[in-house]
What does this fold into?
Amino acid sequence: MGWNSWNTFGKAINETLVKQVADALVQSGLRDAGYVYVNLDDHWQCGRDEHGQPVPYPDKFPGGIKALADYVHQRGLKFGLYSDAGEKTCGGEVGSFGYEAIDARCYAAWGVDYLKYDYCYAPADAATAIQHYTTMGKALRATGRPIVYSICEWGERQPWLWAAEAGGHLWRTTGDIWDGWANHPHGGPGIEQIGFEMQRGLEAYAGPSRWNDPDMLVVGMYGKGNTSGGAGCTDAEYRTHFSLWCLLAAPLLIGADIRGMTPATQEILSNREVIALDQDELGKQGFCVAKRARTEIFKKPLLFGEVGIGLFNRDSREAHVSVTGSDLRIRGRYHVRDLWEHVDRGEIDESGELRVDLGPHACAIFRLVPTE
Ligand code: GLA
It folds into this structure.
């Protein structure tokens, strides 16, 4: 859980922004809700010095990366960087191919805790991708510093089959998300496509320290920023996006500018009852158990026999959604807790039913807790 610069800021990153974001994570309470990584994406690096070491843009990062990482660490946060398994990054900056050991040692010396490793300007075949990712995975391990390794080849070579063995802790399963419910007219999957369609069947590959990554959150962007360009989403859609990502046990990397959040954005991102589904230590990825017309029911098994449930309306009109104990394949009685309304909703057993009326693209999320 944390924040990443790409969705809103793209190229326009600098050390002042990163410091303000770190401060905002602390002041808003988001850090204490679990968002601890502050990750710089592409365009921090301008080239290499005479020893082959990566160099940040001096105008954007005059204090250097180490001092910035220190600032972030002093606030109880962790610091992440971005590079690429090819000669260049997706934005055309210098990549790490051929410099993996130097780069990994340099990141460790700077105090980097997280590396997102992209796959532009690299050969398309899976065997080469596995080799490139394994080389960096080994280089990171050899530093002796624990560094979360995020593999970003957009799900094109079925990374869920090999990325953990290459050293990865998470791997993207899709192309770049854009800040919309529907897909972008010129490509780019929206929330609906990624959340409901593109993760189906991938739950078998997720578990502790090996996560499918359906890309970063667009909650709170409202059409502003690098991966926007449209009207963005409604608060109901952002709530659905966040709920789905939590039921999918997805990494939660905020992409919005958190220095000025609306109350709705703050409320969505800070909902600890929903976050607890995402962070449940059993580490199971939720999945769809029933689909009727334009409604879907998701289930996420949790620690101690508890269960996370999502009722979703994909339609743009209101819908009545119900789920039975038999849809959920539960046994025994459970207390029902409503995680957006923060109220208890009685009990359910295998012959029981839960019913809700949902607005366009809205959802209801429950936690079932065994009564004994
Ligand atoms: C790729 C990645 C994005 C982002 C950009 C940066 O498109 O998938 O998440 O990191 O590169 O250039």
